[in-house]
From TrEMBL:
Domain of life: Eukaryota
Domain AMP-binding enzyme C-terminal: 458-532
Cross-referenced PANTHER family: ACYL-ACTIVATING ENZYME, BUTANOATE--COA LIGASE AAE1-RELATED
Family assignment from sequence similarity: Belongs to the ATP-dependent AMP-binding enzyme family.
GO biological process, one term: fatty acid metabolic process
Signal peptide as annotated in the record: none
This protein's name: AMP-binding enzyme, C-terminal domain
Record bears the keyword NADP: no
Positions of the AMP-dependent synthetase/ligase domain: 21-408
InterPro entries: AMP-bd_C, AMP-bd_C_sf, AMP-binding_CS, AMP-dep_synth/lig_dom, ANL_N_sf
Keywords: Fatty acid metabolism, Ligase, Lipid metabolism
């Protein structure tokens, strides 16, 4: 339109760096980080992050370079989320459950110049460097993160580090008047997150400054995070950059309460001591809180909003969390959507529904949050939206500014993911008449039995309702006659007992008979560090059991 121009007065590239800069002014004397006896204010955190950026620049890290981190939820990990981008670099946070072999693969793929490593994981990092030394000339420099007052000599020998490459000494090299390197284009990368996958083909998801900025604000809105929240770190900061709450808390001048290890006692104690207002966690984390001993539970000092996601939560888990006094917000997304992408926005008219009906609605994945343009359920071939009947399945697809920029060094996979102008999640879902999306399964987890599609999530929700069950996961087991039948892996609550026949009978009372598991295995469930059940492990176990039915046996 005539008369308009774009100039520095009306256009500045969006970046989460601005959140920290504002909080240093507005909330300068307020605690930004609490970790045991360690306390920092927002003014101090800002200074430390600027000095970190300066030290990185002096160390030879240039704009666009990758800087990796292998650490739990500690203050240094939080500072890296600002200090690295302030140097113009890209932060790559690594899963702390990776072994040396996987870390070496991701290091080689990302070409990180520097890797910050918590002392707890130093042997993993050393092992990765040793592997790389045999195959690659590009070796990262390790910078060791110690606990306050922890002597360097307490770390086992053989380290490629020295005292000058310990985190606090490295920080001291930086200058507080360093000129922060801001993005010239808001679509420049800010972070690199690796999806769960195999060592043969890692997928590095690229986040932009713009996407991180918008998703952070969306997360603050969807959890009704007013100014100065107290956020308890129960979501790993390495997972989608803590679902972007690393930046969201800074946007609202909140306090980050860091936990190295997440336990029920640690969570309840932290909530009571620091008057926590917000936290997050996969359904597994919620389940741990629900089933913790009475001696570990403490009354909540006020309303605590819990954002859950990462895996579809069973309605029973949502219901029991609310009974404990938590306000549960259900979100859904993937690494490719910066973590949270949708929100099951609650409607007042649902308050009058029976408790079980409310829990079932809350278990839906909902609608796009305000930072995302839209979410839909489409036929993956025709790209037409499925009917809003709550029955017809399709692929859940996303579109908007909080969708990844692409996969690092894998243009083919990026184009496949964006085919048709939408991000294809690979998740199977339905759409209800009110427009709310409900996830039915990952496409690879759907069980096809006798031509019928069985949702493992639906079967798991029913199993969870059995009073003796603590955890459950359902996968396909080969079946000679039916092709596949549901196989349930179940962990019982301490002191409780149940037989396979009881679990099957319970399912048949609430589901069509063909959906009830024909195999029930009692054991601990393998988990990722973010609390997701490793279904690929269970699928292998189920396949290893062999075909269930003999030829000619067709009875269910």
């Amino acid at each position: 339109m005539e008369g308009t121009i774009r100039c520095p007065a009306n256009y500045v590239p969006l970046t989460p760096i601005s959140f920290l800069e504002r909080s240093a002014i507005v909330y300068g004397e307020r605690f930004s980080v609490i970790y045991g006896d360690v306390r920092y204010t927002w003014k101090e955190t800002h200074t430390r992050c600027v000095k970190l950026a300066s030290a990185l620049s002096q160390f030879g890290v240039s704009p666009g370079d990758v800087v990796a981190a292998l650490a739990p939820n500690i203050p240094a990990m939080y500072e890296l989320h600002f200090g690295v981008p302030m140097a113009g670099a890209v932060l790559c946070t690594l899963n702390t459950r990776h072994d040396s072999a996987m870390v070496s693969v991701l290091q080689k793929h990302s070409e990180a110049k520097v890797i910050f490593v918590d002392y707890q994981f130093i042997d993993i990092a050393r092992g990765a460097v040793e592997i790389l030394s045999k195959t690659s000339a590009k070796l990262p420099q390790i910078i060791l993160i110690l606990e306050a007052g922890q002597p360097l000599q307490n770390i086992s020998s053989g380290s490629p580090t020295s005292e000058k490459l310990e985190y606090e000494k490295f920080l001291a090299m930086g200058k507080a008047d360093f000129e922060v390197i801001r993005p010239k284009d808001e679509l420049e990368p800010i972070a690199l997150n690796y999806t769960s996958g195999t060592t043969s083909r890692p997928k590095g998801v690229i986040y932009s400054h713009r996407g991180a900025y918008l998703n952070s604000l969306a997360c603050a809105l969807l959890t009704e995070m007013s100014s100065m929240p107290i956020f308890l770190w129960t979501v790993p900061m390495f997972h989608c950059n803590g679902w972007t709450f690393t930046w969201a808390v800074a946007a609202q001048g909140g306090t980050n309460v860091c936990l190295r290890n997440v336990t029920a006692k640690g969570v309840f104690d932290s909530i009571a001591e620091h008057k926590v207002t917000h936290m997050g966690g996969a359904p597994t984390v919620l389940n741990i809180l629900i089933n913790s001993p009475a001696s570990e539970k403490k009354p909540l000092p006020g309303n605590v909003v819990v954002l859950t996601g990462g895996a579809p939560p069973p309605p029973k888990v949502l219901f029991e969390m609310q009974n404990l006094g938590f306000g549960v917000v259900h979100s859904y997304g993937l690494t490719e959507t910066y973590g949270p992408g949708t929100i099951c926005t609650w409607k007042p008219e649902w308050d009058s529904l029976p408790a079980d009906a409310r829990a079932k609605i809350k278990a839906r994945q909902g609608v796009n949050h305000l930072g995302l343009e839209t979410v839909d359920v489409k036929d993956p071939v025709t790209m037409k939206s499925v009917p809003t009947d709550g029955k017809t399945t399709g692929e859940v697809m996303f579109r908007g500014n909080t969708v990844m920029s692409g996969y690092l060094k894998d243009l083919k996979a990026t184009k496949e993911a964006f085919e048709g102008g939408w991000f294809r999640s690979g998740d199977v879902g339905v759409k209800h008449s009110d427009g709310y999306v409900e996830l039915k399964d990952r496409s690879k987890d759907i069980i096809i039995s006798g031509g019928e599609n069985i949702s493992s999530i639906e079967v798991e929700s029913v199993i969870f309702n059995h009073p003796a069950v603590l955890e459950a996961a359902v996968v396909a087991r080969p079946d000679y006659y039916w092709g596949e039948t549901p196989c349930a892996f179940v962990k019982l609550k301490d002191g409780c007992s149940a037989s396979a026949e009881e679990i099957t009978k319970h399912c048949r009372q609430h589901l069509p008979h063909y959906m009830a598991p024909r195999t029930v295995v009692f054991e601990d469930l393998p988990k990722t560090s973010t609390g997701k059940t490793q279904k690929f492990v269970l699928r292998e176990r189920a396949r290893g059991m062999g075909s269930l039915s003999k030829k000619g046996s067709s009875k269910l």
